[in-house]
Design goal:
This is Glyoxalase. The protein has 123 residues and is an alpha/beta fold. It contains three helices and eight strands, in the order E-H-E-E-E-H-E-H-E-E-E. It folds into two domains: 57 residues, Signal recognition particle alu RNA binding heterodimer, srp9/1 (2-Layer Sandwich); 55 residues, 2,3-Dihydroxybiphenyl 1,2-Dioxygenase, domain 1 (Roll). Strand 2 and strand 3 form a beta hairpin.
Amino acid sequence: MKLTHSCIITENVKKLSDFYKEALQIEPQSYGDDYVEFPTDGGVLSLFSFKAHEELAKGSTIPSSNRCLELEFNVDNVDDDFARLEQLNVEIVKPLTTQPWGNRSFYFRDPDGNLINFYTRTR
């Protein structure tokens, strides 16, 4: 089995797409106004409109309500990314620290409140 996509259902694909384009520094692949993909080495982060999703599976999601899932990205230089994202005034949830297991990381939220971890392995 291979996990291929993580999909965020959102009420504002454009706003979230603009955010992730800046945060990930990846050009999104757009498939109309309702769906966008950000290809990464480990899979695809996709954004799908709540309105379009409702047509497929009515009542199955509630946008901007996530408080239990974290998206994690292994980045080349977490210190540089922290400084860059601080300038974008993102909500920092956990400041830049080095964990006992060796990852240097920080947590922040996207405009819909989803938790994101950027980290670099130090050992």
